[in-house]
């Protein structure tokens, strides 16, 4: 028996059903709107906040930015002769990620097409062999470069998301090839192998200029010398070129404006290549003749402070990529220190005469050739008796120089040394410049002040000694020294009076004449002046018995000085000679003679001005220390 539902109850049920269906509709609509909001948010995140990453990932599939190398600036001597130039070369690189090495015997089908942009191009072993021959490399080396996975700094293999070894997108196959050889490599049309233009540094002067110029590494960055010191100036700015690659790895077109590179600037040095060659030749000969550990020479333009030559021996060939002995890289004339010995005596006498504590007629009794002081005995090799300042320099008396030093306050002596640059860097802007060692005068004991009078107890570089002798060549004016060609002489400072400078210059001329210690420094047709030095070297906190430094610092021509030349021979064979007058003065003579003629300096003496030395003339007292 069917029961009828009352109309009111039926209407109520229908109303409840409609409400349920509406709730479901709104639930579905809300869900759809939520999903749409999520998609919209994700899209905004990718398009707005993560745009660079996505573009980078996309471009990585088809685009590459190539670096356009700038031509490194040329280095020239003062006359424009090239000392360092960059020649165009080609470097071959590949993208291992774009290449798949096939097993031996398999070849790539002629109709091969990649299924996706990520598919690497198959490369057969025959193609690898052809590539290796064109590169001039063993095939195994090429396979290793193309097949090695990326690694961490610890050597661990880097894997991709799929757990497979990740391969690099860039690897050099061979750097700096001859352009024609690189062209032969590209002619093989091997996918994923490209060429990039670069420059290789070449040094025409080779070992003659090595320690001044330095060298660059294979990437063109300065490693030593002026190549390092002026790297930013010489490097210029690299350019760029963005290109599209097809699925086979070939470059098909440029997709952006090419940014051209900006070449480096030319650096003109004060060095004269002709004088540099002469100085290096004569220095090398002396180092060889006396079986020395090494040597250095500095040639200064007395009027401007410009360095005309700066050579060291032994040297190295900067054009070679073979490993270089670190000791040969040093620019000894600027970086190495030594005790100057008797070459410092003219500065001691100049300081005392400038201060007025002595004059040209002041006498000092050096008898009997020995002097006890502070528990030490200072000796001369001969009993020279009573000496004037001139006699002290001519005979190179240690006792005389010590007594001169003690006539003046410690501060006066220190001020003179400081004024000529002792204890200060020369200011060349050269890597490793040494300032030397000059202790504060307040710490000096009398014995130390005395030994400094004849060049012990302080240390200098050869460049500092050449710079210091400017005051005797330029009537008392000290100029800054420079390795860069100057358009005009740099301002100098007056250190001593012109009259005193001329007086000391006269004393130094006597040193090169018979009776002095530097007769072998004489030059035919020119008057020369200078001072010898022979100093024992320190070793392990004490002075070594058989290790000496022989040196000579001089100027020419005396009537109108144009050159200052400083020579140092390190550890000459004691069996041959150790004296500065024998090992260093002849180098000075040869270099000055050639340089004055190269510069066209007129003679200021007759051609028969050479006076033969006596056997005793090259021996000096400065070889002895307390």
Automatic annotation (TrEMBL):
Residues annotated as domain Penicillin-binding protein transpeptidase: 295-591
InterPro entries with a match to the protein in the record: Beta-lactam/transpept (IPR050515), Beta-lactam/transpept-like (IPR012338), FtsI_transpept (IPR037532), PBP_dimer (IPR005311), PBP_dimer_sf (IPR036138), PCN-bd_Tpept (IPR001460)
EC number(s) recorded for this UniProt protein: 3.4.16.4
Enzymatic class: hydrolase
TM segment ranges: 23-45
Active site: 342
Location of the region described as Disordered in the Swiss-Prot/TrEMBL record: 607-626
Domain Penicillin-binding protein dimerisation stretches: 68-254
Superkingdom classification of source: Bacteria
Gene3D superfamilies: 3.30.450.330, DD-peptidase/beta-lactamase superfamily (3.40.710.10), Penicillin-binding protein 2a (Domain 2) (3.90.1310.10)
Membrane topology note: Single-pass membrane protein
Family recorded in the similarity comment: Belongs to the transpeptidase family. FtsI subfamily.
Its job: Catalyzes cross-linking of the peptidoglycan cell wall at the division septum.
Name of the protein: Peptidoglycan D,D-transpeptidase FtsI
Organism of derivation: Jeongeupia chitinilytica
The organism's taxonomic lineage, starting at the top: Bacteria, Pseudomonadati, Pseudomonadota, Betaproteobacteria, Neisseriales
């Amino acid at each position: 028996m069917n029961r009828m539902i009352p109309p009111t109850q039926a209407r109520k049920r229908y109303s409840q059903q409609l409400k349920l269906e509406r709730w479901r509709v709104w639930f579905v609509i809300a869900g759809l709107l939520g999903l749409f909001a999520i998609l919209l948010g994700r899209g905004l995140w990718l398009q707005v906040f993560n745009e660079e990453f996505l573009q980078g990932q996309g471009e990585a599939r088809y685009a590459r930015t190539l670096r356009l190398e700038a031509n490194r600036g040329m280095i020239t001597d003062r006359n424009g002769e090239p000392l360092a130039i960059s020649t165009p070369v080609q470097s071959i690189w590949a993208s291992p990620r774009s290449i798949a090495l096939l097993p031996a015997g398999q070849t790539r089908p002629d109709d091969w097409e990649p299924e996706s942009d990520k598919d690497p191009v198959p490369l057969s072993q025959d193609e690898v062999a052809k590539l290796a021959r064109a590169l001039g490399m063993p095939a195994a080396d090429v396979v290793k470069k193309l097949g090695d996975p990326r690694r961490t700094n610890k050597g661990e293999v880097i894997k991709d998301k799929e757990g497979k070894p990740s391969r690099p997108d860039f690897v050099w196959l061979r750097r700096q090839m001859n352009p024609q050889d690189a062209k032969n490599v590209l002619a093989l049309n091997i996918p994923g192998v490209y060429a990039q233009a670069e420059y290789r540094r070449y040094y025409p002067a080779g070992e003659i200029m090595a320690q001044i110029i330095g060298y660059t590494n294979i990437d063109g960055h300065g490693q030593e010398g002026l190549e390092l010191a002026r790297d930013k100036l010489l490097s210029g700015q690299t350019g760029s070129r963005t290109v599209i690659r097809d699925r086979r790895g070939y470059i098909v077109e440029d997709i952006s404006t090419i940014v051209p590179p900006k070449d480096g600037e030319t650096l003109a040095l004060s060095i004269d290549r002709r004088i540099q060659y002469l100085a290096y030749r004569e220095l090398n000969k002396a180092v060889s003749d006396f079986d020395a550990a090494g040597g250095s020479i500095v040639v200064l333009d007395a009027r401007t402070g410009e360095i005309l030559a700066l050579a060291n021996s032994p040297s190295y060939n900067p054009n070679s990529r073979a490993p270089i002995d670190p000791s040969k890289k040093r620019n000894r004339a600027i970086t190495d220190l030594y005790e100057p010995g008797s070459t410092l005596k003219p500065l001691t006498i100049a300081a005392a005469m400038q201060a007025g504590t002595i004059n040209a007629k002041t006498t000092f009794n050096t008898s009997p050739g020995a002097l006890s002081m502070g528990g030490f005995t200072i000796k001369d090799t001969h009993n020279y008796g009573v000496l004037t300042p001139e006699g002290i320099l001519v005979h190179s008396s240690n006792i005389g120089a010590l007594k001169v030093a003690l006539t003046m306050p410690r501060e006066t002596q220190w001020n003179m040394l400081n004024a000529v640059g002792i204890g200060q860097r020369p200011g060349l802007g050269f890597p490793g410049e040494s300032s030397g060692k000059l202790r504060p005068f307040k710490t000096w004991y009398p014995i130390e002040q005395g030994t400094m009078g004849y060049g012990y107890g302080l240390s200098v570089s050869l460049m500092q000694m050449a710079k210091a002798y400017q005051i005797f060549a330029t009537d008392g004016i000290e100029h800054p020294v420079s390795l860069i060609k100057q358009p005009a002489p740099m301002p100098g400072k007056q250190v001593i009076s012109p009259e005193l400078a001329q007086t000391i210059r006269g004393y130094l001329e006597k040193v090169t004449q018979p009776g002095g210690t530097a007769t072998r420094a004489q030059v035919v047709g020119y008057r020369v002046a200078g001072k010898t030095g022979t100093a024992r070297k320190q070793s392990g906190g004490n002075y070594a018995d058989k290790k000496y430094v022989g040196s000579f610092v001089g100027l020419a021509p005396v009537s109108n000085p144009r050159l200052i030349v400083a020579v140092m021979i390190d550890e000459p064979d004691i069996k041959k000679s150790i004296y500065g007058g024998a090992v260093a003065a002849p180098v000075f003579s040869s270099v000055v003679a050639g340089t004055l003629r190269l510069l066209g300096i007129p003679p200021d003496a007759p051609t028969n001005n050479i006076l033969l030395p006596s056997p005793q003339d090259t021996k000096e007292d400065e070889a002895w220390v307390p």
